[in-house]
Design goal:
Pfam families: Cohesin_load. One of its GO terms (cellular component) is nucleoplasm. By secondary structure, this protein is mainly alpha-helical. It is built from 25 helices and no strands. Helix 3 packs antiparallel against helix 4, helix 8 packs antiparallel against helix 9 and helix 14 packs parallel to helix 16.
């Protein structure tokens, strides 16, 4: 064989010719083709040859084999070496193009719920960004990995990762919009982490920082100087999308805290922004934002006594899901859950049970554990109201025991589980036990400003004390319950509280106060009755019978309401 000095390209041309011959054979002999290309490295070729060979190997492996890991390794080496060679754009750009295709395909792990593989890939991306000196892109990869770890509930890995991300974000000096967008991503993860844990009070400082950050971004211009490192050219979200996202997490916080008027205000702002964006942008993420916003505002309407509006918005979610099978797959459980909550509000308990059961059937327990616990808690409340489903009820309560191995880390859901135990004990006449559970709920809800749970616990405690004949103590519970319910506003708790205040003041001889409470109770009853009739008369009311398959597209008109207000209290 001739030496490298005498014929520096003969061996390369020979190996390349053999490789191409094997590749184009019928059928292709890919293993032999790969062997020929790998043999090139034995000659310690110059950088240009080395980079091009890595590109050729990566391309062959990508197009003709399932060995995506090895294909990615060769393509990354081709791209990295080509960065060091002047006027070598053809290899650099082809390697980058193939890598982008490969990354897009491998990110489908996330869509297929293969979160472990997706996390591994994001870790590789972060390390690669570090190698090429892009701390900005490294932070994007790490934050994306943090998001998936949150979905997997791997909190032990999330904390150190978010700490590292926070350090990178604060230390990185570059394009102002990119820096602020990293801060938004980082703070959104922190806020959602707190909200997933039901820590509504603890999250306030992070949420305030996030709102200030989006205000800063809105003042920056997009025509800033482009980054010098090509690897920094990634962009997470357009600032208009980030604005909607910040509105969304603010709505989520307001809902958990019980600030429902604030939640409605931010939802209206976000939906208006979305309508404008959707005129110019068909990005699927906008429809996802819209569905999540509607899901939250629907729960809001049900609490504030606007069931008819909530039902029409549930129908709107159905229409959005009909347009996107993937959107329906990801939100079917939430849709059935919302219908279950609506059924409770109009006293269709059999339908509520069917909807919650359907939600449990289609939910993904691996990534929606909080949703699962929320559904089970509400289904338990249905069984308690029905009063004749003891076996099913106790089976559920064993799975959400707040005193022992509660299945999720959510402070809010655990407090709600104590409330459900208290409600059951109340219906069973075990009042001392009920008081213990409800005081635990109060302690937890006060610690994190969970106003709705506080109001519900206070009025139920007031009811217990009234039944026991302790009218003074009952009054001490019901009055703040009514004040809090008015602030939220929660129509059902207001109705319940006003009924108790009427009876309490009558028992205490406060005739004027009793008359005032009776008038309030009458007003709340009339408002709820009118809304009840309006909702049950809508053709969309037939959605309560849908429990399987895609949501129906057409609804037949109702002749009138099929349920009554008899069991609202």
């Amino acid at each position: 064989m001739a030496s490298n000095v005498e014929a520096p390209e003969s061996w390369y041309l020979a190996l390349l010719g053999f490789a191409e011959h094997f590749r184009t054979s019928s059928p292709p002999k890919i293993r032999l083709c790969v062997h020929c290309l790998q043999a090139v490295f034995q000659f310690k070729p110059p950088q240009r040859v080395e980079a091009r060979t890595h590109l050729q190997l990566g391309s062959v492996l990508y197009h003709h084999t399932k060995n995506s890991e090895l294909a990615r390794s060769h393509l990354e080496k081709a791209w990295l070496i080509s960065q060091q060679i002047p006027q070598f754009e053809d290899v650099k750009f082809e390697a980058a193009s193939l890598l982008s295709e490969l990354y897009c395909q491998q990110q489908l792990h996330t869509l297929e719920k293969d979160l472990v593989s997706a996390c591994d890939l994001l870790g590789v991306g972060a390390e690669y960004a570090r190698v090429v000196g892009s701390e900005y892109t490294r932070a994007l990869f790490l934050l994306s990995k943090g998001m998936l770890l949150l979905m997997e509930r791997k909190l032990g890995e999330v904390h150190p990762l978010l700490t590292l991300c926070g350090t990178i974000v604060e230390n990185w000096q570059g394009n102002p919009i990119q820096k602020e967008s990293l801060r938004v991503f980082f703070l959104v993860l922190q806020v959602t982490h707190y909200l997933d844990a039901g820590q509504v009070k603890s999250v306030k400082p992070c949420l305030k920082q996030l709102q200030q950050c989006i205000q800063t971004i809105s003042t920056l211009h997009d025509d800033e100087i482009l980054p010098s490192n090509p690897a920094d050219l990634f962009h997470w979200l357009p600032k208009e999308h980030m604005c909607v996202l910040v509105y969304l997490v603010t709505v989520m916080h307001s809902m958990q805290a019980g600030y429902l008027e604030k939640a409605q205000k931010y939802t209206d702002k976000a939906l208006m922004q979305l309508e404008k964006l959707k005129m110019l942008d068909s990005s699927p993420i906008l429809s996802t934002f819209q569905v999540i916003l509607l899901e939250h505002i629907i729960m809001c309407r049900l609490v504030t006594g606007h069931k008819a509006t909530a039902l029409q918005e549930i129908s709107q979610v159905c229409q959005l899901c009909q347009q996107s099978p993937r959107l329906f797959t990801n939100h079917a459980a939430q849709l059935h859950t919302l219908l279950g909550l609506y059924c409770i509000s109009v006293n269709c308990m059999d339908n509520a049970e069917a909807q919650f059961t359907a939600a449990l059937r289609v939910s993904d327990l691996t990534t929606h554990q909080e949703l699962w616990a929320f559904i089970v808690t509400n289904l338990a409340s249905v069984y308690i109201r029905e009063g004749n489903r003891h076996q099913e009820l106790y089976s559920l309560l064993e799975r959400i025991n707040p005193d022992h191995n509660f299945p999720v880390s959510s402070h809010c859901l655990r407090a709600a589980a104590f409330y459900i135990r208290g409600l059951l004990s109340f219906f069973q006449g075990r009042y001392n036990e009920a008081k213990r559970f409800l005081r635990e709920t109060l302690k937890m809800s006060n610690a994190e400003d969970l106003n709705r749970l506080t109001a519900c616990s206070l009025v139920l405690l007031g009811h217990i004390f009234y039944v026991l004949g302790n009218h003074r103590e009952s009054n001490n519970m019901v009055v703040p319950a009514m004040q809090l319910a008015s602030k939220i506003p929660d129509m059902s708790v207001q109705l319940w509280s006003s009924a108790l205040l009427k009876d309490l003041n009558k028992a205490l001889g406060n005739t004027i106060d009793a008359h005032e409470a009776a008038q309030m109770h009458q007003n709340f009853s009339q408002q709820l009755l009118q809304d009840h009739i309006a909702a049950c008369s809508l053709p969309e009311h037939n959605l309560i019978s849908w429990t399987d398959g895609p949501p129906p597209g057409q609804f037949q008109a109702q002749n009138g309401p099929t349920t009554s207000l008899a069991s609202l209290l």
